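G., the chain you wanted modeled:
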Amino acid sequence: MADRLAFLEYTFVFQPGAQTWQRGFEFEKDLADFLAAHGLEAKIIETIGGTGRRVVLVEKMDKLDKARDGQTTNPPGRPMSVGSRLKQLTPEKTKAAERRFKEGKFLVRKGYLKRET
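Predicted structure as tokens:
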């Protein structure tokens, strides 16, 4: 944290509805997305005493952290096993029908002509 901080006090007033946000956390999420688009990060600071005010600390975003850009680094779900990854990388075996078509051995009645070599 920096040695010196600037304290700005704002009051946002909106009517919850279709034109604005339904809840306060939706507004905070949109504010955080706006700041992230400008290379800044908003952190909500927990306060003691229950003042009823939200304190948001705005700092410069770490460029190495890609998860804050809205992109998740890990896809949802269970991670793939090593065997699954290897199967994904191996070339698929061609099916018999595909192989015969390339060789031109399908019958005419099946809709394919024999390939002339």
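The two ends are 76 Å apart (CA to CA).

Shout if anything looks off.
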